[in-house]
């Protein structure tokens, strides 16, 4: 899917960094005068039906030729996540520069020729970059070309800088994140792969869990830099009594809805990251699981009525499909809704 790719921010003349192509014995050539999916700066952003608009994203990675990749993405507040599968053993190029941060997570990738460049770092000709990570800060250029030896499978995460935790420097105030090329980090890898499984799996609509993982991933990116503010670490304790009451009341009042993690955090005057940690400390489970648990408890009350249909109960607690309700109920209770009805009959 390249239909969602939007305006490419062109490389500015007089760039303070050296060209990524300088000194190459055989400079890479474009596959045409223009990138096939390149648009002018005045073209409107077009999102697939049903996807929320994320106005901070003005550009995703551009591939040439675009038909060599298969793409799928999901968007939520401050984050866009996309899966990318290269489908052909043929030369491919990609580039990126945008006012958003980009994290690339390579599940598989090996090339017989080519190099990767991130502005501010020496280019790398690493052949096998399986299980490697690349971080491109907002405004930096990213360029890659290769002759694939094995087909690339990757996940890209795009972060609105305003959605990332603020990192402070004692003397200069807010500082920028540093670029990183082909690095490894176990915590980031674990969170990123769980997010990938979520956006590709049947629980793609579990917004609260998705937001929670995205928030933790954002904090792990900030943690990469040794200059990150240690005073910003979450408190050791849980939520105060008034915060617990406020959150539980809000969840009970909105059981049938997808509740935003940021809305819950704002309710108790905490950042989403601190809220997640404090909530789990207080209740023993993350917010999304608590919400699911309360929905299933409400479903049990409704299912205890002999005349209740499984479909009607699922709709009543916010599920649009009986199959998804049945799966969620069985995961939570070990019984299907019908089985539970029989057990209490």
Question: What is this structure, in a nutshell?
Answer:
The chain has 345 residues and is an alpha+beta fold. The protein has helices at 186-200, 207-223, 241-253, 261-267, 272-283, 287-303, 310-316, 322-333, 337-344; strands at residues 62-64, 69-76, 79-86, 92-96, 101-118, 133-136, 142-159, 168-169, 173-174, 180-183.
Write the layout of secondary structure elements.
Elements: E1 62-64, E2 69-76, E3 79-86, E4 92-96, E5 101-118, E6 133-136, E7 142-159, E8 168-169, E9 173-174, E10 180-183, H1 186-200, H2 207-223, H3 241-253, H4 261-267, H5 272-283, H6 287-303, H7 310-316, H8 322-333, H9 337-344
CATH H level of the largest domain: which superfamily?
Answer: Jelly Rolls
Class of secondary structure makeup: alpha+beta
What is the radius of gyration computed over CA atoms, rounded to a whole number of angstroms? 23 Å
* CATH architecture title of the largest domain: Sandwich
Uncertain runs: 1-57, 167-175, 226-235
Series of H and E elements: EEEEEEEEEEHHHHHHHHH
Largest sheet: 8 strands, antiparallel
Task: Write a structural description.
- The chain has helices spanning 186-200, 207-223, 241-253, 261-267, 272-283, 287-303, 310-316, 322-333, 337-344, and strands at residues 62-64, 69-76, 79-86, 92-96, 101-118, 133-136, 142-159, 168-169, 173-174, 180-183.
- It is of the alpha+beta class and 345 residues long.
- It folds into two domains: 1-233, Sandwich (Jelly Rolls); 290-344, Homeodomain-like (Arc Repressor Mutant, subunit A).
- The strands form two sheets. Strands 1, 2, 3, 4, 5, 6, 7 and 10 form an eight-stranded antiparallel sheet that branches.
- The N and C termini lie far apart (50 Å).
- Mean pLDDT is 76; it is low at 1-57, 167-175 and 226-235.
């Amino acid at each position: 899917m390249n239909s969602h790719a939007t305006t490419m921010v062109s490389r500015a003349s007089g760039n303070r960094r050296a060209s990524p192509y300088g000194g190459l014995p055989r400079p890479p050539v474009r596959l045409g005068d223009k990138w096939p999916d390149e648009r002018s700066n005045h073209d409107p952003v077009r999102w697939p039906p049903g996807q929320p608009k994320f106005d901070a994203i003005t550009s995703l990675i551009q591939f040439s030729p675009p038909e060599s990749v298969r793409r799928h993405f999901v968007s939520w507040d401050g984050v866009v996540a996309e899966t990318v599968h290269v489908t052909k053993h043929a030369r491919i190029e990609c580039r990126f520069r945008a006012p958003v941060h980009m994290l690339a997570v390579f599940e598989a990738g090996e090339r017989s020729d080519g190099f990767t460049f991130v502005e501010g770092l020496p280019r790398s000709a690493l052949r096998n970059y399986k299980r490697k990570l690349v971080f491109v800060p907002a405004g930096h250029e990213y360029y890659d070309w290769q002759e694939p030896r094995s087909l690339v499978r990757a996940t890209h995460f795009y972060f609105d800088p305003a959605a990332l935790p603020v990192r402070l420097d004692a003397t200069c105030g807010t500082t920028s994140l540093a670029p990183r090329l082909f690095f490894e980090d176990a915590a980031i890898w674990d969170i990123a792969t769980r997010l990938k499984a979520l956006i590709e799996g049947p629980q793609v609509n579990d917004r609260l869990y998705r937001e929670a993982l995205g928030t933790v991933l954002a904090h792990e990116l900030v943690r990469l830099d040794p200059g990150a503010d240690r005073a910003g670490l979450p408190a050791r304790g849980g939520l105060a009594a008034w915060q617990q009451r406020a959150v539980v009341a809000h969840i009970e009042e909105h059981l049938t809805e997808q509740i935003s993690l940021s809305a819950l955090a704002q309710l108790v005057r905490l950042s989403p990251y601190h809220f997640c940690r404090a909530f789990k400390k207080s209740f023993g489970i993350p917010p999304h699981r608590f919400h699911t648990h309360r929905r299933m408890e409400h479903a049990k009350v409704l299912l205890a009525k002999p005349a209740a249909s499984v479909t009607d109960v699922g709709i009543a607690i916010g599920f649009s499909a009986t199959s998804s309700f049945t799966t969620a109920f069985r995961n939570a209770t070990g019984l299907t809704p019908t089985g539970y009805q029989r057990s209490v009959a």
